[in-house]
Records
---
Amino acid sequence: MSVHDPDLVAMKEELEAAYNGLRPWAKEVLRLLVARFGPLPAEQEELARLALREGLSGAHVRASLRLLQSNGLVHAVPKGWREHQYRVPEGHAAFWQEKLFPRLEPEPEEASFGAEGVRNEPGDAVKDVLQVLLAASRGELKLLKSGGLSGQSVRRLEQVLLARDGELEASGLAAAVPHRYGPAVAGALHMAAASGLLQVENGLVRPAGEAAAAWLGKPCRVLHQELYAIWKKAVAPTFSGWEFHALYALETAEPGRWYPLNHLFDWLRVCGMMDLDCMAQMGFISTRLVPLGAWGWLCLEQRDSGMAFMLPAPVAALREKDFEPRFAGIIVQPDLEIIVPPDPPPGLWWVLLQWCEWTVRGEISVFRLTPRSINAGRTAGGSVEALIRQMRDYSKVDIDEGVIRFIREQGRARPAESTAGPDIHAKEPPGPVRALEPLFAGATAKDGLVREPGVADAAAPEPEPLPAEVPAAWWTLNRRGHPSTEKEMVRRAIAMKTALRVGTACGEVMLVPLRIHEEAEDWVLYGMQGRLEVRLKPHEWTGLRLVWPGIHE
């Protein structure tokens, strides 16, 4: 869904209008729910505990949740008999992140880096999925009766993938798969299957014909978006609320700018999304950030002052953005080497993998045409004339005629040409064919801000009426009463988890009563006034009245 989609714009306008119509205390409860839980469900009791720190009563929380439900801003998810948890719809999370919290800012451009990269070889999820697709097109992915790949198939993938198991061990991917795959193979195979690129034919995993061809025709930016969404969906069940916020900050970072990691954690704490937790921060680095680097979605840099991250320009891209890097073009040298600058189109990379040997890996890659590699391309059903056309289309300079002659001569010595192109375009073989299921259930690409039809949501309850057992005067009068009556009024407020309006010499203030402390000849009221805990004796106020949120304020 594009950021300019009319439905998306309309929904943002609806959310903005609903938010502007909320009472201040309902806005604060919504902020607490989003900050601490993200799109995860929250218990009402936990929300009340957090709201108390802000000077809001349990009655404020109950009234807020009813109001937020009725406006469609919060869903009540059934938990048990007459019990619910509350959450903001996942599709609204990005809107609230932008609306309620400041943006994470990068460090100044003039700041010195002292660059010492975490990894020497950049990862690339798109290229790893293409390696899976290449192995499938060559018939190298054999399935066992258990449904998993053979050991030989797994080892072949391990040798060619850019992502390394050591970088992905803490992600939990391998542990969630019933087969004995390392996390690099598990992740790449899952992303390919969840993208609809693979199918099972006669005991082999093969490319899914038209779906694979269509996928190769997409811009690299779009493929990175889709694969990132698939990865995030797979690991999201293990997220805590603050991790959703941290990843959103990464997704919307300014491409090419560095962000010190300690700034990210400071930002999370200032926004009220997490408490100081060094172990959680270390876990976030190993389980989230390092895997993002392994798939090429994040650049990580170790400095003397700690770690920093940067969103690479080619994947600027983890959320919808109008950005597409321009490919500089390949250089085909007379010695049969092909120099490939950064950001090649996926379709070109696929052709190079099919027909060449990948000899130098890095930001600038080098491929080599050999008799063996051309034989592999022909065996897979490719056409040397189609290869020559592709090379000429993407070449930055004219290709030496000796290279063209070499390709054609090697092609004549091989099996007869097929005009069908690489194996992903080949006709379906006889026998049953089924799609290869993703390794992690329910993981498919999804836009960040969408409507959620069919959500199991309890109906918003009616406003809670005033308790009948409370004298009517206690809600309206704000003057001194009998000491025993005032004490009973405070006790009722504590029992009902509601607030008091307390008259003072400086005016009326709202107080959430916590407890009464008896003294020898007097008593003391302890309560929360905003974020401050205060103590008051009866002679310090000029009057009391009970407050029922939704009716009195």
Note: The two ends are 40 Å apart (CA to CA).
---
Amino acid sequence: MTGLRPWTSAAPDHGALSGKSFVAFCAVGALTLLICALTGPDSDHLEEFYTGYGAVSPLRSGLSIAGDYISAFTVLGTGGVIALCGYDGVMLALSTALSLVVVVFLLAEPMRRAGRFTMGDVLAHRLPKRSVRVASGVVTVVALLPMMLVQLADMGRLMAYLLGFSDEAAKTGCVVGLGLLMIMYAAIGGAQGTAVVQALKTVILVGSGIAVAALVLHRFDWDPGALFDAAARHSGVGPLFLRPGLEFGTDAGSRLDMVVSCLTVLLGAACLPHNTMRMYAAPGALHLRRSMSWAASIVALFMLIMMVVGFGATAMLGRGAIAHGDPQGNTAYLLGSRASLGSHVSTAESLLFMLVTTAIVLTVLTSVAGMVLACANALAHDVLATRHQGLTSRREMNLARLSALGIGVPTVAMAALWQQHSLLPLAILSICLGASAIAPALVYGLFWRRYTSTGLMATFLGGVATVLVLAPGTRLISGTPFSVFPAARLDWFPFTTTGIVSVPAGFFFGWLGTVLSDRARGRPTKQQDARRRPEYHTEEALSRWPENRSASLRGDAGTRPAG
């Protein structure tokens, strides 16, 4: 979001909106901070800070998990891609929703069994070394920092616009104000307090989204086909808006790029640490399955809302007006919500629009607070607490709170400095790191018994390095109308994400590191290891029982079967 331009002609009086929005934002900020303080952990209960315990219903737990998945990038970025690119944007939205399915069926229950507080706990379950925990903590921070910068910078500018601020100092003040509130959420509320606010945010966001989607459908006589046809007519590209290729292209390579991008989003979003940290709080497998089912249903519902509002924005305002508001479409959800109200806005409709804007601000606060909390937990529990053995719960919690401050302050400073630049590639960078480094480590660590700490280090280093080498040459940096430098031709790597190379590379480096470390230490092969098991000799003897019995009857030196 490089610049925000004035509302369309359908907008309400901006001065009145600014005053009401300012009061609403202040009230919501104060109320949610009070909720964090009241529901936050006690000073000596470490589990409450890291996980919030599991003494909540599956519905409330599902609302919190869904709140982690529905980030500001999802609301603003995905909504913009749907409004500007049609079919291609819908595919990316479906990838976000399906990522929860990956977690439910592949990772959720093994992670709950193996982990206690962090990803480091999961990996150290089979690889009990401090280096494993330290590497996990570092990768957690590296993967989440770009996403935090994107959401905080974009939301600071958007909030400044909603409040009627235009000078750079006011925009910087909004970024700093949101950032400080986010740090207080994480440091005061911990996992328990932020979970309550996440659940509240999810209810407000989905509830207001249902109302807006209903208004959009009402304007088209409740006919989705009419909505899609109107969106195609006003898109400027006709039927191509409803076909694949508007963002990625129509040739074979471009279609492959779309498939790879969707799979990367699916895998990366599923494995980012702030999305998985609440699984450790589940008291049992049944509770976790019910919670994840609620979360998946809520996220799928919100993706449907995003599709309706995104297509509605294009149908009612036109693709050009949305791109004029923001070249990357980050204002599409707000513009579509406002356009659904019509030209004559009642008091109730004004309140609904205020509720939408407040929900978006609350979304960025809670999502970035969750990321800060995941980073702080990793630093405190996996890095600092393992260095100083025997820490009390109170001291470790204080370390976690100081870690939240240490992560949050530099993040706010960088977001304030870089807010004028397009930071969208940083969000994709986080997703690629999740898919290329974290996903292979979790899959190997949970399901491959021979996986070694050397293999884990190779997975992290190889996956991260591959992403960092390839990312500057992707289409997000240059070569397309939606890239950072659309006029430049620096896209030597002809894909939008790095997943087609970096994800296999992460798995390959993990396998290679494990195999080489096995040989260096003289670990037995799979066949040799099987021969060392007691049951192997029993099975072998039983299979040779007739031969051994004949030899024994003849008086030869035979071997009787064991047992």
Note: Confidence is low (pLDDT under 50) at residues 1-16, 528-563.
---
Amino acid sequence: MKKVKLKNSILILVLVGILFATFSFKSNFFEVAKQIEIYTTLFKELNMYYISEINPAEFTNKAIRNTLKELDPYTNFYNEQEVESAKINREGSYVGIGVSVYYIKSGIEISSIQKGLAADKAGIRIGDIIVSVENQSLKNMESAQLSLFLKGVPGSKILLELDRQGVLLKKEVTLSKIVVNAVPFAEMIDEETGYIVLTQFNDKASLQVKKAYKKLKKEGMTKLIFDLRDNPGGSLLESIRISNFFLPKGKKIVSTKAKIKKWSNLYKSKNTPLDLEIPIVVLINERSASASEIVAGALQDYDRAVIMGKRSFGKGLVQRYRELTYGTQLKLTISKYYTPSGRCIQELDYENRNVRTGEVPKFSDTGIHAFKTENGRTVYDGGGIMPDIETKTSVANASTSALLKTKAIFNFATHYFYENLTTSSLVDFNFKNLNFYKFTNYLKRDTTFVTVQESLFEKAFSTSKIADILKAYPKIKEHLCEAKIMAISKNKELILVRIKSEIMTRFFYSEGAYKFRLKNDRMISDAFALLENKDIYSNVLLKN
């Protein structure tokens, strides 16, 4: 009798649970439907009766983006044009002319050129501005419009008009399918040490890393420096495949925890590894994120590689694309990921954003937790991957950080290139006539690097009618310029390395910049020295 009562009680509880869940689902669905209906009726009223014309697409785009920005920076809406760009980033191939670009008011500015492809063959250079395509002026066009002009059917020809340092030129180029190389550089540093750069995790990343590894192995590589600095991440699956290259089959690489049960997964290495013995140093910095952190975290947790550099970005969130109507898409955060030891390295807690100030707290503010690697070393969660060896590189101050976000160095490199067109080979290239004074002098006339103080002064001056202020304008402006130059001069060496690297791309493409980095990069030098000393390398990976 007691068993029957117990069964009945359990049945009642189950029914109550189902009814509650059903009611909760219906209630939530009703709320969603209600809010959509409110927005629809509001939009209809505005469209019919508002005094000025309303652009439906623009209005809705703004409404959607303003809604999503309250969540996290990775949850985004893509209109029809943006879907194509996102697809290129994921798949690693597109139809074009082999350039990266900036969209500016006067047209499309070339920021980099792939060696041997259409733009390069046509003699197009970094810094050229495409001002018209097929006699269609590009002036004052939106980025979404400009992005369409260099796309089309493979084999089709397009006529470009370029502005090169004030001179107009016409070039005909042929569109072709272009594969984005996620591994732009892989070379031997000496007879034993190989160096591979991975710049993104697109769908071809693992194949390209594998190809680069095999190439260097044939050249005698017995030690590897794997550079993930400035790599913003990408495909979760590609990060798992690349981790698998250096970890045994069947090892846990990463796990994800989501609100939807089917999106909570445990990912293990499925393939035979490339190499379980080769000593590896993985380089990371504050711009290594997401998939880069999955690879670095997995190799660190299994004590398979020494992680060197600066603490990584701290993006422990996973996104997925969802198809919407009319060719649009939503990329939304669906889960958090955890390294093999159980660490979540997410830095910012977007769920607890301060409603009043908009400030996002850090998980580390409430304390960090310790975890153990396979050898028993202590590692921590709550804010990126901490390197096993932190390098002491020059830290950019606020003014230098602001400078590096502008195109000032890019513009100066182009200016330098046209002043020094005659050059020698990559091997004996000399930065003649280059010094820091030349750059700071150039900044006095370049308008891209503007400090907060300069911006505020310009706004105040533009609204002022007081004669004394008008007279003092030139002196104050000069003083502010001198102040920012004095501030960035504290990072002189850091800035000069950036300038030289940018100049090298003008003469010798990206290959030249990477070759320059091999000889002048402090972190690469430190990684090379560590791999040269087997005892120190091994001790880093032992229990601490």
Note: Confidence is low (pLDDT under 50) at residues 1-16, 18-25.
---
Amino acid sequence: MKRIQPVILLLAAMTLFLFYRQSHRQSFTEGITRAQTARMLAWTVCDMNKDRAKSVEPLIDVDSTLWYADEITTVLAEGIMKKDGDLFHPIDYLTWEEASNIADFFDISLSIPVFQKRKPMPLEKWLQFFDRLLAEQDIDIKLIKKEQKILAVPSASDTLDRWQVKTDSGIYSCEGLALEKYLDQTVTAYIYQDQLLMAVPADHQQAEIITASTSVDTDNTKAAEAPSESFSQNDPLPAASAPDIRVCIMNDDFSSEAHKNLRMTSDAAWQLTFHNKVIQYPADEVVELNADDFSEDGETAEAVPENHHCMTILSINRSCGNPSYSGRLQIMRSKDALFLINILPTETYLKGVVPSEMPASYHLEALKAQAVCARSYALSAVKNPKYDFADLNDSTSCQVYMNQGTDTQTDLAVDATACEVLSSRQKIVTAKYFSSSCGSLSSSDDIWGYPDTASLDTHMTERLETEPPGIPALSSEEAFRNFIFQPAENTYLESSDPWFRWQTELSMAHIRSNIAESFAKRMSADPKRFTVLSSDGTIDPDDISQIKIVKRAESGVLQKIKLTGRNQELTVSGEYNIRCLLVPSSDTAVILQDKSTRNGMSLLPSGYFFLEEINDGEQITGYKIYGGGFGHGAGLSQNGADTLAEKGYDYREILTYFFEGINIENVNTLE
């Protein structure tokens, strides 16, 4: 690892990490930290006097002098709570998933709300679960839960020690609780022997939870930039954050998740947790990592900037330049490569998706519709992750993220639709979208279904993109050809868009080259959609002499083609596979209806096209391709959404135009 001037000792770095400050009182609906959870469990269901003597592996973020150190050691020794490698994350809020793990340890059922597993568990829900946990234990737990009046606190009394509180029934230890603001007020207290474990005021405001200060030798930390405000022993812990999503960041050309090396920096001071150390770097310091810097497969490092700034990856180039990522970055070694995962709140993630998927210049209502679709897609991915280590990636195979920088208009669209998703029967609908329509929309089955599978998403249906939507009948070659060549004037929403109609051509030599390069690769990725009939079961691209259309959906999208030769017959199904095999060469232009051209495409623009032979005598030398639209053609057309917004549709009306039988609801109200 190449690095410049690691200048902060471990203890100082831990203190800087905790400097973030919360200026408002936490509500009863907010969470309980992992440290406070450990304290409540350690003093009730564990034997603190016995278990605190047990040893566990040292934790980077738990200093032995802090008030919660013994409690964390106790719950780890018992196996009630788990650590994350060499970290415990004591100041993070307990999530629903972590609470469920605790419930499993005690063989108690705990229902987790859908899509809430990585959200903080509200304190109110934790206390309800904690009450049930204690009630169901066989051991005699003498926990008292009763109302107490706070009579004295250390800051207002010379007789109390640092972590003591006086109530109308005695003096108790209250490590980790700042109760000054409740002086002379009545609280509901959880008391075990001489320990006051939690206090919930009558107005349902949570007692502030704090961490002890750690002294730092300033002579050893002069090279570090001091934070704008330090974290003191009476500061509350950071507020609960939004649910996180894990985004795998692809390489430069989006061809792979693997990176040879990663170079990173930040415009603010930042820290890298790596090799059991927390290393603090000043702003603009550049660090480079490669696989050789890691000891073994699966080892990770984590980069976090101060004060909600971003980390910039200098080894990646996007349309916006070197991308900058909010949240934190996890770097993981796998074999000889590195994988980069951006972990951040979902709503923040969406602010990097919407401008990368839809031009920020589009009408606000169209951007709102895009935000709802992107949120629906993202939360569906959280429920069904693409990888073990990440929910989705940042490419067109999922949702493009941070290819363009954030924008105030798209930020507004995300904020205005916060938490809203497409739903049906109390479940999130996976909202698909694409760039531009040819005037006909496909069903989910048309694009992604297999002949032997049940219907997929019934909310994306075949329809003509008209007002109101019509029913397409474009499965015959004649009907589709007429639709492409002679669309009814001023009938279709996007008839003025350049991509509404396009054309290109392919030589047979280039088609054979595509088959040689891509057929086996695509067949390996999607074997159900390919067949090979030849004498020896092999593929001979040079033998292919003709393309035949086998099947077209009523929406007009091409679903199956046959590639034939003297000695073989290859079939290809699925619009994506067909577009891969019939992509023009890099020097062959796709000509749009406004006569502009595009070169170097990685796919044919869409699956809505027909073929016209180019002949030299009786020999087919190539094909002219006439088509329309850009993208797969199912779900929301982004350009169509902007057209509807221009006509005065609001985002809800836009969404119900493209998706049948859906609701637009707050995700927190769903099952």
Note: The chain is about 25% helix and 25% strand.
